[in-house]
Amino acid sequence: MRKLLFFFVVVCLAACSSIDCPVQNIVSVQYEVCDKAGKAFALTDSLSVVTTRVDGENIDITKLLNSNDVTLNRLIGKSSFSLPISYSHPEDVLFFCFTDTVKTVVDTVWIKKDDIPHFESVDCNAAFFHEITDVRYSRHYIDSLVLLNKTVNYDQTTVHFRLVPKSSD
């Protein structure tokens, strides 16, 4: 009986804990695919996104697409997507690989950012929010990549970038 009473007290005390750590603490960048007029549309070509640290070596796209660094794999028929953002590098390098039935076209996107530590509570893990300070991109498939919101935090509904492919008229 004592063991049962002790167990009951321990369970009650553990249940009364009120740590408010966020359950969904994912920080990611939201992209929306639009035409030149700003109207969202679904991608007809397959999109894969690869991220890796490239230190001046030649890039072999086949190796990249078969590596463990694939962040988004063969997205098609969607008008929006999200990608994680690093918290340990001042600049993220992303390879956007657009594939149709014949060929693959690759654009490189460089996102510079400031990392801002964010604390909910002493009992919770630290998260990092970000301020995007600059974006550069190659223009093989991408016509423009417009920064709409430079603050990246827990809000999964905020669109950060508007991606306009060259084929959208």
Shape: elongated
Instruction: Determine the fraction of residues in helical runs and give it as a percent range.
Output: 10-25%
User: How many extended strands?
Assistant: 10
What's the rounded overall pLDDT mean? Answer: 80
Listing every helix as H and every strand as E from the N terminus to the C terminus, the arrangement reads HEEHEEEEEEEE
Which regions contain 5 or more consecutive residues with pLDDT less than 50?
A: 13-17
Largest sheet properties: 6 strands, antiparallel
Strand content: 35-45%
Our count of helices gives 2
The assembly state of the depicted protein chains is single chain
Radius of gyration over all CA atoms, rounded = 21 Å
Q: What structural class results from the helix and strand content?
A: mainly beta
Going across the major beta sheet, what is the strand order?
Answer: 3-2-5-6-7-9
For the record, give the distance between the C-alpha atoms at the N and C termini, rounded to a whole number: 76 Å
Would you kindly provide a written description of the structure presented here, covering whatever features stand out?
It is built from two helices and ten strands. It has helices at 2-15, 61-65; strands at 28-33, 46-51, 70-75, 80-84, 91-99, 104-118, 127-137, 142-147, 151-152, 161-165. Mean pLDDT is 80; it is low at 13-17. The strands form two sheets. It has a six-stranded antiparallel sheet with strand order 3-2-5-6-7-9. The protein has a four-stranded mixed sheet with strand order 4-1-10-8, with no helix packed on it. With 169 residues, it is mainly beta. Helix content is 11%, strand content 42%.
